[in-house]
Amino acid sequence: MYGLALASAIGMGLILLMGALVTKTGSGDGCGTDWPLCNGKFVPAYTIESMIEYSHRFVTAVVSLFVLGAAVGTYMVLRHSKEAMMFAFGTLFFTILQAILGALAVIYPQSDAVMALHFGFSLLAFSSALLLAVGIKTGAYVPKGSPARSKSVRAPVIAPHMRKWIWGAAIYSYIVVYVGAFVRHTESSGGCLGWPLCNGAVIPELNGAVGIAFAHRVAAALLLIVIIIIAYKASRPDASSPLLRSASLWALVLTVMQVFSGASVVWTLSTDWYLLTALIHVVLVSGMFGVLCYMCVLAWRAARKPESMDSSSL
């Protein structure tokens, strides 16, 4: 079970990376308007664009099998846990949804706003798969009455006001991620040249690509402030458990790193390092969102009555 869940999480992370690679290299049209074939062939012509696009499709198909297997396995072994079922079938749902959206984008060209959702759904699938794998690995779904249940960690203590901050940060971070994906799909990365200033100004003229890129910067800066506040609040023993303090610290580190990786994307726009920095940015953003989702699970569990919980903590 754990092997399938872990493979699903790693696979979804790879899909996120390959999706960003497709967008950054302009390979979305590498297979024309054919799907699931590529330019009418099962094995496409060996052009860079077609191979990148077709590899993305192939990996998605393989990972989908892992996700399906994890969902079936969860139902057979862990259906007593509503939490495990939610993550397993949530992963399956968002995997199917992002695959359908990707197929429609090939056959019927979609707007940049819709295509940005493609990355957002993939991110939700990755986070669900990650939480399922972590839960299984740490014995979070041990059934009631099992001798191993007594070994599970109790629900973390998280003050109500902290739970609101955590949920708010996770929801807001998804909005920031969506805006970032919109920047990528509208090719607005070059709208703001230079960092931290935008085209040499604190507040540039907000039109076109400049406005889109600047909006993403402001949104990311606000997210960093929110994460700093959460990390500070979590450092107080009366507000949270050691587990949440550790998770909030990870969230802060990853948020800081993704801010500077975003800056490196701007600094390398006209160099050969641009693709690498852009992919690193995707990895860090995915990790940050995954940690925030984990913190949401902790907050959710802390708000539940002990007797109603499938297990106590991830």
Overall number of domains: 2
Shape: flat
Q: Secondary-structure element order, as H and E?
A: HHHHHHHH
> How much strand content do the residues show?
under 5%
Task: Name the poorly predicted regions.
Answer: 306-314
Global structural class: mainly alpha
Biggest β-sheet: count, sense, barrel?
none
Helix content: 55-70%
Average pLDDT level: 85
Give me the number of helical elements: 8
Q: Count every beta strand, where a strand is a DSSP E run of 2 or more residues.
A: 0
| Rg for CA atoms | 21 Å
Distance between the termini: 16 Å
Overview of the structural elements:
The chain has 314 residues and is an all-alpha fold. It has two domains: 2-142, no CATH class; 160-308, no CATH class. 68% of the residues lie in helices and 0% in strands. It contains eight helices and no strands. It is flat. The two termini are 16 Å apart. Mean pLDDT is 85; it is low at 306-314.
Give a quick precis of the structure.
The chain is built from 8 helices and no strands.
Summary keywords:
mainly alpha, 8 helices, 68% helix, disordered C terminus
Secondary structure elements and pairings:
Elements: H1 2-24, H2 48-78, H3 82-107, H4 112-137, H5 160-185, H6 208-234, H7 242-267, H8 274-303
Pfam families: COX15-CtaA
Subcellular location: Membrane
Protein name: Heme A synthase
